[in-house]
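Re: How this chain folds, sequence and tokenised backbone to follow
Notation: Tokens come from a learned vocabulary of local backbone shapes, not from coordinates.
Start of record: The labelled sequence and token lines come straight after this line.
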Amino acid sequence: MKLYQLHSKQSLPVSKQEAWDFLSDPNNLKIITPEHMGFNILSGGDRPMFAGQIIAYNVSPFPVYSTKWVTEITHVKEGDYFVDEQRFGPYALWHHKHFLHEIQGGTEMEDIIDYKLPLGILGQLAHPILVKKQLQQIFSHREQKLIELFGTIEGSIKELHFTSV
């Protein structure tokens, strides 16, 4: 079993509360997801985030492949972090931690995603060719959208790292 981890950091020139208000609203996920992915919330995004919340989406991670993705918000510490876990969808495992840290001039947004691909060795072969590239594209798009919405902190560096176990 191969487990992968994506670790991303991005600084935003907004207060921690403003970042939290935007990032903890499930409806804003569509704004920061590439349009070609056909991302739509089917249910569960109609109220403020809470532990135990189930959110169902339709998503097309790759051309000609569409799937339903169901996540559960498993942990929430208001203003600081939340965790979403896949209950049904394209991954064998998806555990996504979202942290907000107050920094000089704004807020650092940190994501740590632990994930496993289905299909054993085929999934592992697809990782560098398809999945890793797709996740890089998604996070690059998200970074640009957040800069468009909120701006950037002078001299801040966006980080994106992948590791595997």
Summary: Strands lie at 4-12, 40-43, 54-62, 65-77, 81-88, 93-103, 106-116, 159-164. Helices lie at 16-23, 120-150. The chain has a mean pLDDT of 93.
